[in-house]
Specification:
This protein is an alpha+beta fold and 345 residues long. It is built from eight helices and 17 strands. Helix 2 runs antiparallel to helix 3 and helix 5 packs across helix 8.
């Protein structure tokens, strides 16, 4: 029997390409270039306490957030790697106000990448898990440089999405619409090795992840759902455990493996929530659904949302499908007499 831990990311994606003739070498190149950028970022992350890459730059990004030095490094690294591939028409980053067309002297490709270079960057100085989130889309314009129209596509149009989690071990997890696969970085050989083949999330978990510091500003439905999760009831296997790191990638990754729900609702201060549809919600929704999970804004499937701006924000309820369905029922006022028989114990 072949030990799947000996399969590198490069070998795996090339094998997938052979099994799916419609896949192209150009697309494979984009994915592997993202992996290359992740290796470079990982090298800086593990040396963050020794090199001059921790702390804030003193600047504020387009989101109104303090820019960390490692944010800048990750953004510039990904842009530099992707800009030299010749496979892309345009790129959009959470850190940039507008789109970034490819250099005039570079070939113009047929793919688009939207990315969050360093999710959870406020945790950098505390040595807490952080991550990179990416989404690959087909170009829809036909001539010249790519445009904002190429970036503003609904999540269901994604060809590939995934994330890199930097921590005690570094993992790259991705989907191309044919399951979810995780690769752990082996620094001694400089390769991502297949460690989590065909990840499936439980239908229901026992974990909820949310910043309850915002409870007072939540809607009544959201408050009722959070309160319901904490009530002791052996028949429905409550209460749930609250686990919240504050890095989206870290919280999502744990719940993807163990089951549960990640919650970022809107509130009186931020009625549309704070997470970005293109760079965070849509890519992770694709991963969640391909692992058997679900992703909602409270009323609609995240993958169906058509973005109208690069930095559009959304509420996000993400994770095990039964947990997401229960959350929607509370948010929509359908929770009375909620049918719990579907609970998988």
């Amino acid at each position: 029997m072949t030990d799947h831990r000996a399969i590198t990311l490069s070998q795996f994606v090339l094998q997938q390409e052979r099994e799916h003739p419609e896949a192209s070498g150009e697309f494979t190149s984009v994915l592997l270039d993202i992996a290359l950028a992740a290796k470079m970022i990982n090298k800086a992350v593990v040396r963050a306490g020794l090199a001059d890459v921790i702390g804030a730059t003193g600047d504020v990004n387009v989101q109104g957030e303090r820019v960390q030095k490692l944010d800048v490094f990750a953004h510039e690294t990904i842009m530099r790697v992707l800009g030299s591939t010749g496979q892309l028409a345009v790129v959009a980053s959470e850190e940039d106000e507008g789109i970034v067309p490819m250099p005039d002297d570079a070939p113009i490709g047929k793919y688009v990448v939207n990315f969050d270079p360093l999710d959870g960057s406020s945790n950098i100085d505390a040595n807490v898990n952080i991550g990179t989130i990416f989404s690959i889309l087909p170009r829809i314009t036909r001539k010249g440089q790519g445009t904002i129209e190429d970036c503003l596509q609904a999540g269901r149009r994604q060809m590939c999405a995934g994330y890199v989690l930097y921590g005690s071990s570094t993992m790259l997890v991705y989907t191309t619409g044919d399951g979810v696969h995780g690769f752990t970085y082996e620094p001694s050989i400089g390769e991502f090795l297949l460690s989590h083949a065909d990840i499936r999330t439980p239908k229901r978990g026992h974990i909820y992840s949310v910043n309850e510091g915002n409870y007072a500003r939540w809607s009544d439905g959201m408050k009722r759902y959070a309160d319901w999760l904490k009530v002791e009831d052996k028949a429905t296997d409550r209460p749930y455990s609250m686990r919240y790191v504050g890095s989206l990638v870290a919280d999502f990754h744990r719940n993807l493996l163990y089951g549960g729900i990640y919650l970022y609702p809107g509130d009186a201060k931020n009625p549309n929530g704070k997470l970005r549809l293109l760079y965070e919600a849509a890519p992770l929704a694709f991963v969640a659904e391909q692992a058997g999970g679900a992703a909602s804004d409270g009323t609609r499937r995240i993958m169906d949302l058509a973005p109208s701006s690069l930095h559009q924000r959304t509420q996000l309820f993400l994770g095990s499908p039964d947990d997401v369905a229960d959350c929607e029922a509370f948010l929509q006022g359908r929770h009375e007499g909620l049918n719990l028989e579907r609970r998988t114990l």
